Amino acid sequence: MKNTTAIRFFLIHFSIVLAVFGFTHIVFGKASFSVAPGVIEFNLKERKTKSFIISNSGDERIRLMVRPVFFGIDSNSLKAGAPINLENANQDDLTKAIRVSPKVVVLSPGQKRKVRLSIRSKKKLPPGDYRAHLLINILETRKAADNATTPLGSEEGMSINLNIKMETAIAIYGRAGTPDTKLDWRCGQNKQGIYFVQAINQSKWNFRGWFGVYSPEENNEKLITEVRLISLRNSVRAIPIRIPPMKTFKIRWGYKQNTHDKGSYLCDL
Question: What are the pLDDT digits (tens) for 130-179?
Fold first, then answer.
């Protein structure tokens, strides 16, 4: 049971990480499927329907279920930091507004199917960023394995039926209004001697971009290291820095790689 739980956790967590970068692919034995794209974004002021493709990349007929789920910031599946305010931790949950068609997909080997997705909220959502995931899993894969060797004292071979669930997830983001993301920062060193910076996002907007660690000189800044950063609304996240900086260093951040033009913060350890 512990091994089964560990495998299931690994598959979900690994596939969610892949979903952030735009493509997911699950393989287990002869049954496998892929999903693209891995991230879908909506302007919540527009009532649009978007779609993604599920492909049976294995050699078995598969039956898949598609359903919206919400992972907390500090969940084992997401691991995106911790919520600043627990009362507001799930205010960005989009699951109840997501409409999926079809919810069950049956695919023969090599077959593809388009799945439609829309967001229909019963009430107007306040300005901010919202999110959810679409969890896609094979409902059941039954395999029978006959033991070729008959055990002593038995007249029958052993037959094993395995119910194996394979899962992946697509990240769904929705935005209402014009973003005004504001980040604050803290810096420190943990007990293992590893330097880290802490991104604090008290706004209603997500930040997906990069930050750079620079030398503190005003007229001669030198980039020490650059790190990818995804900071969800109402969250705090610690990011280790692989290259230890000097006791005083500057953080600059921006939405594009090598372009840290949205703000700066001076760290003094």
Answer: 999 999 999 865 444 444 333 433 333 333 344 445 889 999 999 999 99
Give the torsion sign (CA, 97, 102, 106, 108): negative
Hey, is 145 helix, strand or coil?
A: strand
Question: In angstroms, rounded to a whole number, what is the distance separating the alpha carbons of residues 224 and 226?
Answer: 7
Domains assigned to the chain: 26-141+163-176 (2.60.40.10), 183-268 (2.60.40)
* Distance (Å, whole) CA 251 – CA 101: 44
| Angle at alpha carbon of residue 5, lines to 33 and 130, rounded to 5° | 65
Distances in Å between the alpha carbon of 121 and those of 43, 83, 124, 129, 133?
Answer: 13, 24, 7, 14, 16
Strand, helix or coil for residue 3: helix
Average pLDDT on 90-103 reads 96
Nearest alpha-carbon partner for 171 in 50, 47, 16: 16
Listed residue (209, 197, 208) closest to 257, CA to CA: 209
DSSP-based three-state secondary structure for 238: strand
- What value does the mean pLDDT take over residues 200-223? 91
Strand ranges, E, within the chain: 24-28, 31-36, 39-43, 49-56, 62-69, 82-83, 98-101, 104-107, 112-119, 128-138, 142-146, 159-163, 167-176, 183-189, 195-201, 207-214, 223-231, 235-240, 248-254, 263-268
